[in-house]
TrEMBL record:
Record carries keyword Hydrolase: no
Pfam families recorded: Aa_trans
Name this protein carries in UniProt: Amino acid transporter transmembrane domain-containing protein
Primary location: membrane
Length: 275
């Protein structure tokens, strides 16, 4: 829907003879522009930081052999990125072609004048579902911890007689799904409220991506492989490439941290809640 909306906006603007500006955003100095570009690396890292779910997904496969498990994960990664990368690049290029350097961080705002209200409602609905699904995946560890903590509190407060144990187990299974849904909806709903309430949430997301997601997702795996037994036995060219990639991503993460901190400080005086 983002692709269709951006294409419609591009067609309407070309039909009306309007031209988008593709240069540096007006009013920005070279330093501000550079810091904005640097901060964007942190936002990308935040969006692609999947290190927290990979072990859980890998463990859930249930394969007895390591090679079988690795092959399944390789297929999953290949299939995912064959769809993700072209889609994101197409959206980025179409939205930039349609709106130029004036495109906002929230693309739906730019699409509003060019699509119908019904189209926007469906897009909002899909975006909300997507947000909740991603939140349910990326916060899986937190959900499990909360559930276990509640279970411990429940067990410490109640002592079940042996004759009633079977009945209580059946009741626990019945309420398990409702408990999971309640925890996830409450957790993600509160996170959504905080994200909407804090206008600088994007800057903090970029900072989090720079100092948290970048090392764990794009640097540590290379270091971990090179230090492992397989890495030490790997060809020297592969080890060298891994160190180079780790250095590149470490540099990008450092630039993203500097850019996000700069923008937080520069925009601190203009922040207002829910704006």
């Amino acid at each position: 829907m983002f692709i269709v909306g951006s294409g419609a906006a591009l067609a309407q603007e070309r039909h009306n003879g309007e031209e988008a500006e593709y240069g540096r955003p007006e009013g920005d100095t070279r330093l501000q522009y550079f810091m904005g570009v640097a901060e964007s690396f942190g936002i990308v890292a935040f969006a692609y930081g999947g290190h927290c779910v990979i072990p859980d997904v890998h463990a859930s496969l249930g394969h007895a052999e390591k090679d079988e498990s690795r092959q399944a994960m390789r297929k999953a990664w290949t299939g995912a990125y064959l769809g993700i990368v072209p889609s994101y690049f197409l959206i980025v290029n179409l939205s930039y072609a349609a709106f130029g350097s004036g495109v906002s961080a929230f693309l739906i705002d730019d699409l509003k004048p060019h699509v119908s209200t019904a189209f926007l409602c469906v897009l909002y609905g899909f975006s909300l579902v997507n947000f909740f699904c991603l939140g349910a995946i990326y916060n899986q560890a937190a959900f499990v911890y909360i559930e276990e903590m509640l279970d411990r509190c429940h067990c410490s407060c109640r002592k079940t007689l042996p004759s009633h144990a079977e009945a209580e187990d059946a009741e626990n299974r019945k309420t398990s799904l409702r408990k999971k849904i309640a925890i996830r909806v409450s957790y993600i709903g509160f996170g959504t409220l905080v994200g909407a309430m804090l206008p600088f949430f994007g800057d903090f997301a970029a900072l989090s991506g720079a100092v948290g997601f970048t090392p764990c997702t794009f640097v540590y795996p290379f270091w971990l492989y090179n230090r492992s037994k397989e890495g030490r036995e790997a060809p020297s060219w592969r080890r060298t490439v891994n160190w180079i990639l780790a250095g590149v991503f470490l540099t990008l993460g450092t630039l993203a941290a500097i850019g996000s901190i700069y923008n937080i400080i520069a925009n601190a005086s203009s922040y207002t809640i829910f704006s």
